[in-house]
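quick one, 107 residues, struct below
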Amino acid sequence: EECLEIRKKKLPASDLLVAETKHLLGACLIQQHKYYESEKMLRDALRMRSASLPPHHEDIAHSQYTLSQCLRDQNKLAEAIKLITECLEIRKQFLPPLHPSVAEAVG
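---
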């Protein structure tokens, strides 16, 4: 959290390093079962990445995947399935069918 605060002070609010930090913090919060805080961080990261990157960028897919895992753990299955499906569609455009990142999204 300290890293995020430093980056937010030093960088523009829309900077992709801020998005990356929010994504990583959100992933850590999932591991701590702090789903409410995690979901907020991950949604912010996805929103920032979606606004700054091309529509089918791998970082957007990664944010979708991680947020889908958080939602799954909260039993918000309809939205989790929607995100993981979008993630899979992005990953299939850039990666071979047997790539571990495609398998991760399918599994």
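The helical segments are 2-10, 16-31, 35-52, 58-73, 77-94, 100-106.
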